UniProtKB/TrEMBL annotation:
<dbReference type="GO" id="GO:0020037">
    <property type="term" value="F:heme binding"/>
</dbReference>
<feature type="transmembrane region" description="Helical">
    <location>
        <begin position="491"/>
        <end position="512"/>
    </location>
</feature>
<dbReference type="InterPro" id="IPR003567">
    <property type="entry name" value="Cyt_c_biogenesis"/>
</dbReference>
<feature type="transmembrane region" description="Helical">
    <location>
        <begin position="96"/>
        <end position="113"/>
    </location>
</feature>
<dbReference type="GO" id="GO:0005886">
    <property type="term" value="C:plasma membrane"/>
</dbReference>
<dbReference type="InterPro" id="IPR002541">
    <property type="entry name" value="Cyt_c_assembly"/>
</dbReference>
<feature type="transmembrane region" description="Helical">
    <location>
        <begin position="425"/>
        <end position="442"/>
    </location>
</feature>
<feature type="transmembrane region" description="Helical">
    <location>
        <begin position="394"/>
        <end position="413"/>
    </location>
</feature>
<feature type="transmembrane region" description="Helical">
    <location>
        <begin position="41"/>
        <end position="62"/>
    </location>
</feature>
<dbReference type="InterPro" id="IPR003568">
    <property type="entry name" value="Cyt_c_biogenesis_CcmF"/>
</dbReference>
<dbReference type="GO" id="GO:0015232">
    <property type="term" value="F:heme transmembrane transporter activity"/>
</dbReference>
<dbReference type="Pfam" id="PF16327">
    <property type="entry name" value="CcmF_C"/>
</dbReference>
<feature type="transmembrane region" description="Helical">
    <location>
        <begin position="448"/>
        <end position="470"/>
    </location>
</feature>
<dbReference type="InterPro" id="IPR032523">
    <property type="entry name" value="CcmF_C"/>
</dbReference>
<feature type="transmembrane region" description="Helical">
    <location>
        <begin position="175"/>
        <end position="195"/>
    </location>
</feature>
<dbReference type="GO" id="GO:0016829">
    <property type="term" value="F:lyase activity"/>
</dbReference>
<feature type="domain" description="Cytochrome c assembly protein">
    <location>
        <begin position="89"/>
        <end position="295"/>
    </location>
</feature>
Length: 653
């Protein structure tokens, strides 16, 4: 009965989304206040109904209701409770229900916190948001219904994919969806502004918090996925340039560009057309990511579905929304003339360069991701585009971005001077040079990757600190603590990017790897550490069988840790997984993987010493915290300046 309530609530949410899509739009076009105002209760009702539907599916998983086909295929009575709950979105149908729940959440938030928006713009934003929801409700109800019943319910289920039975993967999809779907608000604001014929500083102030929230969640989601791949898959890497990894990275790059271009619209009334285009493309790439994950066109460990019919449906959604938005953009963009005039050497010019680098980098990743599909479709050739291509094609743009970011951030608006802008950064330049010389001296083989990458990271961190100091002037600490939160958030986020640069560069350059057959009680050395395989035992887990090793680690005769790498077998799905054992440290990780037993009685063991590995995720956390600090700035939360919108409006016709 609970499942039927959930199904009925989902159908009602679909109906409400259709109402919200049509009636407020007509009201905005005809100037009918009551029709426009009805968008707000409709958005709240849509979220409530979708929440009921999602709660009903969660109850089915928690109570192991195997009469539901979805629960039978993705759960088991022996599964720990955490993974019974996360099994709700550990599959295609449930994850799509989570998708529309988050979509409805953003719509409800826009309805609740949009008091400063002009009624017509608010109605159109909520109407566009509802149209996206209607498309995905239809997709779920007609192709991916999570509430289908089995005629003869079995006593137990098939279990969840063992790779997904992990805390990292439990929280990775919700954060990723909050980012993916959050960009729908930027899209809705862009399309509503095109319909309204008005893009101005107030519009940029309204759209920035939604974009910032989406970018922040996307940062956390990508970081969680990278961290999961690092410790769960047992291959020792943090990024593989997998197509599904790229699918989340491309909208992240475009959202970062959108955040920076919106600043120019807000401060200087320039880059209006470009900012609208970025808002459309950022969400468009989120839909492309959805298509890649769920169409089956690309095989990946992250993929949810392998159903071409569903892929065609999502492709149709992508074509309709992005195609319609771009058509409207083509009709309106020419009328959105820029007011602000600026020199190429200015903060506006630096932000334009920032946008070009991020957008071209996203395009490079897109080409590398989609090219194998193009080659197979047109020439029937199977190609593989791997890490070497992405590293060589993508990295130069990030190097240039890191070089110009501190200079651009300190540059004055409208017209600047490079020599004058670099003056406050002289101390940062000297310290960066000293760090690079030190790394060159201590680096084995004088690694260029370590010197350049870590140097750029230090430059970003010191540049962010120098900018804060420069903004205080002669006021010192009293002025520093009174700086707007947005300034602090920017400094923390840019520093986080620098910390990630340092982690990636030093891990890539200084990692030590050892693969061998280890005998019981035989010691061997890896990167200055002594490792001894003490035992390998069979261990019974809650819903798996484990082959668990015990490996002692010491340095200079002093014990460091005893690590327990595992190989697990999940009997229900007969699927093995590798559980790496990691001794985390601030400056290094000791990373061990146990393999199969060998003919001579030994065991295959892979050992890594990974310097500065955790700095990669520390930097990501700092970037997300920086976004959160900026989001807490009152100017962005209340969309200050909204009442001036009509005076500053730029008519499109």
């Amino acid at each position: 009965m609970i499942a039927e309530i959930g199904h009925f609530a989902l159908i009602l949410a679909f109906a409400v989304s259709l109402y919200q899509m049509v009636i407020p739009m007509i009201g905005a076009a005809r100037g009918l206040p009551a029709w426009m105002d009805s968008a707000r209760p409709a958005a709240l009702a849509q979220f409530g109904l979708t929440g009921i539907s999602f709660a009903a599916l969660t109850v089915a998983f928690v109570t192991s209701d195997f009469s539901l086909k979805l629960v039978y295929e993705n759960s088991h009575t022996d599964k720990p409770m955490l993974y019974k709950v996360t099994g709700v979105w550990g599959n295609h149908e449930g994850s799509m229900l989570l998708w529309v729940l988050i979509l409805a959440l953003f719509g409800a938030a826009a309805a609740a916190f949009s008091g400063n928006l002009p009624p017509s713009l608010r109605a159109r934003v909520l109407g566009v948001q509802a149209s996206i929801g209607a498309a995905f409700y239809a997709f779920i109800i007609f192709t991916s219904n999570p509430f289908l019943r089995l005629a003869n319910p079995p006593f137990n289920g098939r279990d969840l994919n063992p790779l997904l039975q992990d805390p990292g993967l439990a929280f990775h999809p919700p954060f990723l969806y909050l980012g993916y779907v959050g960009l729908s608000m930027s899209f809705s604001f862009a399309v509503a502004a095109l319909i309204e014929g008005r893009v101005d500083a107030a519009w940029a102030r309204w759209v920035r918090p939604w974009t910032l929230a989406a970018w922040m969640f996307l940062t956390v989601g990508i970081a969680l996925g990278s961290w999961w791949a690092y410790y769960e898959l047992g291959w020792g890497g943090f990024w593989f340039w997998d197509p599904v990894e790229n699918a989340s990275f491309m909208p992240w790059l475009l959202a970062a560009a959108l955040l920076h271009s919106a600043i120019v619209v807000e401060k200087r009334e320039a880059l209006k057309s470009w900012t609208i285009l970025l808002a459309i493309m950022a969400f468009g790439f989120s839909l492309i990511g959805t298509f890649i994950v769920r169409s089956g066109v690309i095989t990946s460990v992250h993929s949810f579905a392998n159903d071409p019919e569903r892929g065609v449906f999502i492709l149709a959604i992508l074509a309709v929304f992005v195609g319609a938005a771009l058509t409207l953009y083509a009709a309106r963009a020419g009328a959105m003339t820029a007011k602000g005039v600026f020199s190429p050497v200015s903060r506006e010019g630096a932000l334009v360069l920032n946008n070009i680098l991020l957008a071209v980098a996203a395009f490079v990743v897109f080409i590398g991701t989609i090219w194998p599909l193009v080659a197979e479709f047109f020439w029937d050739r199977k190609l593989s585009v791997g890490a070497p291509f992405f590293n060589q094609a993508f990295t130069p743009f990030m190097i240039v971005l890191a070089v110009v970011l501190p200079v651009g951030a300190i540059m004055p608006w409208k017209r600047g001077d490079i020599a004058r802008a670099i003056r406050p950064l002289r101390g940062a330049l000297v310290l960066t040079g000293a760090v690079m010389l030190l790394i060159w001296a201590v680096s084995t083989g004088h690694s260029a990757i370590a010197v350049i990458g870590a140097g750029l990271g230090v430059w970003l961190v010191l540049g962010a600190a120098s900018e804060l100091i420069h903004r205080t002037g002669r006021s010192g600490l009293s002025r520093l603590v009174r700086l707007p939160r947005a300034d602090w958030g920017k400094a923390v986020a840019h520093s986080g990017l620098g910390i990630t640069f340092i982690g990636v560069a030093l891990l890539t350059a200084w990692q030590v790897e050892d693969i061998r057959v280890a005998q019981i009680d035989e010691a061997y050395d890896v990167g200055g550490y002594s490792l001894t395989l003490r035992s390998v035992d069979e261990v019974q887990g809650p819903n798996y069988l484990s082959t668990m090793a015990a490996i002692d680690v010491s340095k200079d005769g002093e014990p460091v840790a005893t690590l327990h790498p595992e190989k697990r077998i999940y009997p229900v799905q007969a699927m093995p997984t590798t559980e790496a054992a990691i001794d985390n440290g601030v400056f290094r990780d000791i990373y061990l993987v146990i393999g199969d037993r060998q003919a001579d009685g030994g065991w295959a063991v892979r050992s890594y010493i990974k310097p500065f590995a955790n700095w990669i995720w520390l930097g990501c956390i700092m970037m997300a915290i920086g976004g959160l600090i900026s989001l807490s700035d009152r100017r962005y939360r209340v969309a200050a300046g909204a009442r001036k919108a009509p005076a500053n409006a730029v008519p499109a016709e």
